[in-house]
Amino acid sequence: MPKCNIKVRIQNSEIDQTTEVKAIFQDNRIKYKEEDNTFVTFDYENNCLIRENQNLRMRYHFNEKEGIIEAKEYNRELKVQLNTKKIERNGKNIEIHFDVEESPFLYKIEEII
Question: What is the mean pLDDT of residues 73-97?
């Protein structure tokens, strides 16, 4: 399992957060854990982002028009409208501009060399 250091940026109208974490790159997927114990997987082949913590599981398939947010405590799923504006990839680096329910987001992974 090749390990790497990455810089992750998540931006919307409320936050602009950048963190550096250690990640594992395997089977065309990158996996890392955020400071708040949120586990994140990005599948480069399917353009799928999964973020999961104790309370929620979020799945955004950027090739589709819908994302799913699951509230684990209530065993309920909420479908959200997903509109992918742009995906740019260069090796492990990826930048995705998308809207969730018409709110703009940026998700970016950069490998630190």
Answer: 95
Spatial contact of 62 and 82, defined as CB atoms under 8 Å apart: yes
Collect all residues with Cβ–Cβ distance below 8 Å to 3 and sequence separation of at least 6. 22, 23, 24, 25
Give the predicted TM-score (pTM) of the model. Answer: 0.92
Task: Please give the backbone phi and psi of residue 74, each rounded to the nearest 5 degrees, phi first.
Answer: -100, -5
Could you report the per-residue pLDDT of 68-78, keeping only the tens digit for each? 999 999 999 99
List the domain range (segments joined by +) for residue 29: 3-112
**Domain total in the chain:** 1
- Is pLDDT at 81 greater than 80 in this prediction? yes
Other CB atoms within 10 Å distance of the CB of residue 72: 12
CA distance readout (Å), 63 to 42, 71, 102: 13, 23, 17
